[in-house]
Specification:
313 residues; Serine Threonine Protein Phosphatase 5, Tetratricopeptide repeat; membrane; signal
Amino acid sequence: MMVPRSLLFALSLAWLVSAPLSASAQVPFSEIQDVARAKAEEGLSLFAEGRWQEAYERFRIAEDLFHAPTLVLHMAHCQRELGRLLAARALYRKVAEEKPPEEAPDAFHRAHEIATEHLKELDERIPRISIDVPGQSSDALLVLLDGGPVVALHPADIELDPGRHRIHAAARGVEPLDMTLDVVERERRRVRLELKPIPPPPPPPPPPTPGSIVPGATVLGVGLAGLAVGAITGGLTLARMSEIREQCNGARCPDTIRGDADAIRPLAFASNVGFAVGGVGLAAGIVLLIVRPGGSPPTSSLVVGPHGVGGRF
């Protein structure tokens, strides 16, 4: 039930002029009451302009200085207009539960009646949700609503102000869940949170397979064969040269052995080539035996798990 704004003004003005001062009141108390009345008048002006938050602050200051049900009632109206239905209901309940005495001003009695009527209205307007987390026990589950913990898996509804809200859910062995929830007045909703298990880490990559030794052994064999050819032809060359030297007298050699000397040159060349091929083949064969080409190269992997980051390189 909406109360006409003119009636609200009349109630507050009635309090401002009718709030009694004790005959024995001291001057400091009178000054406090004057400040409270001034703040209440400012609040009424701001309320009439629709400046709910500023009006609420003025009424709150006045209430802190001089308690009156009409001030609390106006604070509740401001919170209601701001969409803070839970805070408004708490203030309405405060006025409704504080029944004024018979000799209290009529404005106080009327404030009590209005607060009682608004309590019933707000109970229907306040949104309510329930949270369901299948597969999770309440002792291992953490659910935060707008940063504050809530008891999930509880049959009672959770009351919220209209608007956007944030939900965070976490439990052992599952991925945390964050979501936003928009609710409107009078809404009743069941929120189901599906928590997904944390996937197991991927298996480590297989170790690299060694390559074949055949290429290295083959090249090494060629190198050894080259060395053997070089050694044999080198030995033959040295033997023939020794025979030729025996037939020569100092630096003079007979013409009959000129053909033998020419025949030595191919053997010497073959020996040099054999040693060269053998040396290169021997070195290349040893390298190929160490490297063993043809196998799979080592792989690197990075795994992110619940306990940190690991890898294989």
